[in-house]
Design goal:
CATH class: Alpha Beta
InterPro entries: AAA+_ATPase, ABC_transporter-like_ATP-bd, ABC_transporter-like_CS, P-loop_NTPase
CATH architecture: 3-Layer(aba) Sandwich
Oligomer: single chain
Shape: globular
Function: Part of the ABC transporter complex HmuTUV involved in hemin import. Responsible for energy coupling to the transport system.
Pfam family, one: ABC_tran
CATH superfamily: P-loop containing nucleotide triphosphate hydrolases
GO molecular function: ATP binding
Structural class: alpha/beta
Keywords: ATP-binding, Nucleotide-binding, Translocase, Transport
Bound molecules: adenosine-5'-triphosphate
Amino acid sequence: MSHLQTCDLIINVPARADGFPLNVHIQSGQIWGVLGPNGAGKTTLLHTLAGLLPSRSGQVLLNETPLAELKRRTVAQQLGLVFQDRQDSFPATVMETALIGRHPWLSPWEAEGHEDQQRAQQALAALDVAHLSRRLLSTLSGGERQRVAIATLMTQNPDIWLLDEPTNHLDLHHQVKVMRLLRAQAAGGKAVFMCLHDLNLAARWCSHVLLLYPNGDACWGEAASMLKLEALEQLYQQKLITVAAGGVPVFVPVDDGL
Ligand SMILES: Nc1ncnc2c1ncn2[C@@H]1O[C@H](COP(=O)(O)OP(=O)(O)OP(=O)(O)O)[C@@H](O)[C@H]1O
């Protein structure tokens, strides 16, 4: 299974000081949650890990090789990204969109075969959007589109799954369904690294957490050791209380009158 490593990585957030160099090792079986306030650089980090943005300094290594030295096709076979905002500008059906996930695995101009179709079908079914497979993507609701994007990543089947707020637009049932799916993928050997705004999803589902501060400071480690009330209050500049539910802490923001 592939693994992704950052070596003294400084992401390039415009007009920000360098901050703390990231030395993170994202490995098979792990589920990472990246937490931080708006503008902290979560999306920038994800895009840098995917090789879509250059770092300011340091490196991203995919199986010990700098990402920049690898062919995009090789990278796309091992690493996939669900974007936060997608411009689905050209008309495509849900099935056509899911099949885009197979492109890294096909030679140029090679058409998708039966197995590719089957993979896409299974992924769409896993995300409860198989019944929409003939619909144009542009006609879907926000949550349906989000599930198609995750199904496309599942169809791509890389070892490393990068996701930018995967529960965006999802109702509660589908939030849990997606988190279960990500946990099952990690249990099967994938590595999952996602930005989250919901602390409680991180507390319940992530094995590892990276806290990213607006000034570029960062810390990371096993989830239980990172999800401490004081650290999270400092991260979000927000008063929180903790209540226990099902053996997992639930963080609740409170109005401190400030
Ligand atoms: N092209 C750009 N020019 C100037 N500033 C930029 C550019 N792209 C991103 N930024 C800034 O970089 C910072 C980090 O953006 P990023 O999208 O990574 O944050 P984020 O943590 O994902 O935020 P959010 O929680 O709101 O999604 C933001 O302040 C953003 O305005």
